[in-house]
Design a protein that fits this description.
The protein is α/β, with parallel strands linked by helices and 227 residues long. The chain has one domain: DHBP synthase. It is 30% helix and 21% strand. The strands form two sheets. Strands 5, 6, 7, 8, 9, 12 and 13 form a seven-stranded mixed beta sheet that branches. The N and C termini lie far apart (52 Å).
């Protein structure tokens, strides 16, 4: 089915770059043809701005070193900072991460949801993603558009926020594109993000959990589950 003029907008190019296709999508019933185009852009090495329940993310093929390198350059992100990944199931998470028993419990209790679990990365994960730490952050967004996008890509995508490093994480497509301009290929506009704050990050690689970043899921809830 062709995308009608009411569903797609074209952003004029930023001072240097390409055109951005902006698709308006219904959060609960994203159109397959729109998600197909966004997924195709990712599989071709492009970048896609997509919605989650927390903030808008910047999606790229997790297996493409060229695409990951683009993210570092576009965001102005230091290469010593890892890039987290988004998956749509625990089975997909196991493809890229070694989940400890505690991580498995957290995964089954809180995901999909605003929690990122840091686990030991499997050998197939790019060093650019782990930044040499040997660890990878895994998250399952609680948003139908994000989950459908991952499904159509057929594998993990990046889950870094769609902003310039050091700038506020965007709650709308407009906020994301004001920072990233024409440096992305596709943007999926599902309106304002529900929670509006980044996810909680917990390191589950060691015996004792460590909270790297506070967020919507409290440290108390996480530790209570495992006591």
């Amino acid at each position: 089915m062709a995308v009608g003029p009411s569903q797609v907008r074209i952003l004029p190019p930023a001072p240097s770059d390409m055109m951005v296709k902006i698709f308006e999508v219904k959060p609960n019933v994203p159109r397959a043809d729109v998600i197909t185009e966004a997924a195709s852009a990712i599989r071709a090495g492009g970048l896609v701005v997509y919605p989650t329940e927390t903030v808008y993310g910047l999606g790229a093929d997790a297996l493409s070193s060229k695409a990951i390198d683009k993210i570092f350059k576009i965001k102005g992100r230091e290469t010593k900072k890892p890039i987290p990944l988004a998956v749509n199931s625990i089975d997909m998470a196991r493809q890229v991460a070694e989940l400890t028993p505690a991580a498995e419990v957290l995964f089954k209790k809180f995901l999909p949801g605003p929690l990122m679990i840091v686990a030991k990365a499997k050998p197939n994960v790019l060093k650019l993603i782990t930044a040499g730490t040997g660890k990878v952050g895994i998250r399952v967004p609680d948003h139908p558009v994000a989950l459908k996008l991952i499904d159509f890509v057929g594998g993990p995508i990046t889950s870094t926020s769609a902003n310039l490093s050091g700038k506020p994480a965007p709650l709308t497509v407009r906020e994301a594109l004001e920072q990233l301009g024409g440096k992305v290929d596709v943007a999926l506009d599902a309106g304002k993000c529900k929670l509006g704050v980044p996810s909680t990050i917990v390191d589950a690689t060691a015996r004792h959990l460590k909270i790297f970043r506070k967020g919507p899921i409290s440290e108390e809830k996480i530790k209570k589950l495992l006591t």
